[in-house]
Automatic annotation (TrEMBL):
PANTHER family: CELLULOSE SYNTHASE CATALYTIC SUBUNIT A [UDP-FORMING]
SUPFAM superfamilies on file: EspE N-terminal domain-like (SSF160246), Nucleotide-diphospho-sugar transferases (SSF53448)
Domain of life: Bacteria
Protein name: Glycosyltransferase
Length: 612
């Protein structure tokens, strides 16, 4: 496809005459444009071969379409409402007159012919940077407010903006009073009832693991063929960052390794307004043109999902993927995701890539963390997806159909595990999640304090998620069905309750072994024996399922089979999980929306690999 006909030769001549390009560069751009199915101008701009202002000045001369001044552009954008401004940011076309009062759009795309094909009469030209600046200047605050209140405003029953409902608080108060009265009137019966209730959640998790082990496939189906370059769509990558200046060079390098045409990449680095260190670090990196840094205006809550909602307003892609600061996705992951979406039924809204660690052998904690991740991403989630059960997403490498993501109102900014919540909301809306045969490598937390902070945030978010989705158990049952309902109770509620109850079961067993010290004054002959027997049954079953899942999951990856020797220590690791669970409970009560920051780039392997 040549430049815009009949102005193509004029544009080419103008670029050459002003010394902006060499003839061989323009010839190469045209060849690449034919290869990828884009305008040659898109190649020139995306690869930084010509500055935006220079290109659009020459395009204006070649086509006779004037450049729009910044004041006029800002006035035109200011006249739009928030939805129209979002549409302009995503399409690159700004209406210059109210509907029906005049023709014409300002276009911020490399080929105004594409704007005409989309229904716009191009009467002025602006650069992409100018358009983004105008939209952020006039609507950034409104976009940020929308990012905070989108789900809470339209589906308040599905948002964690309210920690609990009046009915839930009343039910918890009633249970607390009943438990207190029971301890005063019939302590033995009350203790057994509490033990049984906790045991049910604990055993539900074990039952889910057993189901997964029984249903896992022996062989995986072949991957669908990768699409050719012309068939690849625009792909948006959202990367929310907060206090990540040290890891930004690693992130930029990892994203540059992606095997995807730059002309079809829409990478948005989302930086918080008050994070001046990360903003300076990003500015110093001299990122290529297909990277774009968006500053998220100050506001509450200051969370990752709020930043994602803000970035989604500017997303151009047919598909959207989320990456975290420390991520290193396999280079062909985007191509595999496109192939998977093209081959999947239309009700598959998301593909979750598998997650693993690049530093599994750093210390005891990283080995146990790797076993846990393998159990989840190589075993549990793939089988749950095969069984059409609700899949709580991981916090990164979620690939979405962009239009579907907007239909379900994207992420809940008030939930600190927005990923798990979104997976459940997709299932409740009738959408399915698949697993992608591609891995993103992360940094395994190697410091205990940092790991506890990360784990407590995760479990606090699962508490939020459980309370949100259990506001109406009848509605949840109706939307998920019986199997989906019980799977949700097992995975979300079960993980939380088992984390809290694990040390209590051990305490009961220890009390029985030590002679019933904790139950002096009551008939130990049956109470402690009953509680201890129940606790032993629960823990033996739970430990057995965890160990079996760990061994099975590590067998899925040849490079991780050596870690099977770490599996027997998983019960000790789950005691650390319990420590995080109790810290999460305290935070859920005191600071439900506080985002406990995980420090990255602390691994010795990271510093050994990324030395200057």
């Amino acid at each position: 496809m040549p430049f815009i006909r009949p102005a193509g030769e004029l544009l080419r001549g103008s670029l050459l005459a002003h010394g902006l390009m060499a003839p061989e560069e323009l010839d190469g751009a045209e060849r690449e444009a034919r290869r990828f199915g884009v305008a040659p101008g898109a190649v020139l701009l995306s690869r930084g071969m010509v500055a935006q202002a220079d290109y659009f000045d020459r395009l204006s001369m070649a086509t006779g379409i004037p450049r729009l001044g910044l004041d006029a552009l800002r006035a035109a954008v200011a006249a739009l409402d928030a939805e129209e401004a979002e549409a302009a940011a995503r399409s690159g076309m700004v209406p210059l007159w109210p509907s029906g009062q005049g023709p014409g759009h300002a276009a911020a795309i490399a080929d105004p012919g594409a704007a005409r094909a989309a229904g716009g009469d191009v009467c002025a030209l602006v650069t992409p940077d100018e358009l983004r600046w105008a939209v952020q200047a006039e609507h950034g605050v409104a976009f940020a407010a929308r990012a905070s209140g989108w789900l809470a405003g339209e589906e308040p029953a599905l948002s964690a903006h309210r920690r609990t409902t009046v009915a839930q608080r009343a039910a918890m108060a009633a249970m607390g009073l009943a438990g207190l009265a029971g301890l005063l009137v019939a302590p033995a019966v009350t203790a057994i009832a509490a033990n049984i209730l906790c045991a049910l959640f604990f055993l539900a998790v074990s039952a889910l693991r057993l189901t997964v082990l029984a249903c896992r496939r022996g062989t995986l189906p072949p991957d669908p063929p990768l699409p050719d370059d012309r068939a690849l769509p625009v792909y948006t990558i959202l990367v929310p960052l907060f206090r990540e200046a040290a890891i930004l060079p690693h992130l930029a390098a990892a994203l540059r390794e992606l095997d995807y045409p730059p002309e079809k990449l829409d990478i948005k680095i989302l930086l918080e307004e008050d994070d001046t260190d990360s903003r300076r670090a990003a500015a110093a990196l001299d990122l290529p043109p297909w990277f774009e840094c968006l500053v998220v205006p100050r506001g509450e809550p200051q969370t990752k999902p709020r930043a994602l909602n803000y970035g989604l307003r500017f997303a151009h892609g047919e598909f959207v993927v989320i990456y975290d600061a420390e991520d290193a996705p396999e280079p062909d992951q985007l191509r595999k995701a496109v192939a998977a979406f093209r081959a999947a039924p239309g009700d598959v809204a998301c593909f979750q890539a598998r997650l693993s660690f690049y530093n599994p052998d750093e210390n005891w904690l990283t080995r146990q963390f790797t076993v846990e991740y393998a159990s989840l991403f190589d075993l549990m989630l793939p089988v749950m997806a095969d069984l059409d059960l609700p899949v709580p997403l991981g916090g990164t490498s979620n690939h979405f159909r962009a239009d579907t993501l907007r239909k379900v109102l994207a992420w809940d900014p008030w939930n600190v595990t927005e990923d798990a919540d979104l997976g459940l909301r997709l299932a409740r809306s009738g959408w399915r999640v698949g697993m992608l045969a591609s891995t993103t490598y992360e940094e395994a937390n190697c410091r205990l304090g940092n790991w506890i902070r990360q784990r407590s945030r995760w479990i606090k978010g699962w508490m939020q998620t459980w309370f949100v989705h259990m506001r109406s158990p009848v509605r949840l049952w109706r939307e998920l069905g019986a199997t989906g309902f019980f799977a949700t109770q097992a995975l979300v509620g079960g993980i939380v309750v088992s984390g809290l109850a694990h040390p209590l079961f051990l305490a009961v067993i220890a009390a029985d072994a030590l002679g019933g010290i904790l139950f002096a004054g009551v008939d130990r002959s049956w109470l402690v024996a009953t509680l201890a027997a129940s606790s032993i049954l629960v823990l033996v079953t739970g430990y057995g399922c965890v160990l079996a899942a760990g061994y099975a999951a590590l067998g899925e990856r040849e490079g991780l089979r050596r870690l099977r020797r770490a599996v027997p220590a998983m019960p000790l690791y789950w005691l650390l999980v319990s420590l995080g669970a109790w810290h999460a409970l305290w935070q859920f009560i005191r600071k439900p929306f506080y985002w406990e920051k995980t420090e990255h780039a602390v691994s010795a392997q990271f510093h050994g690999t990324h030395e200057d």
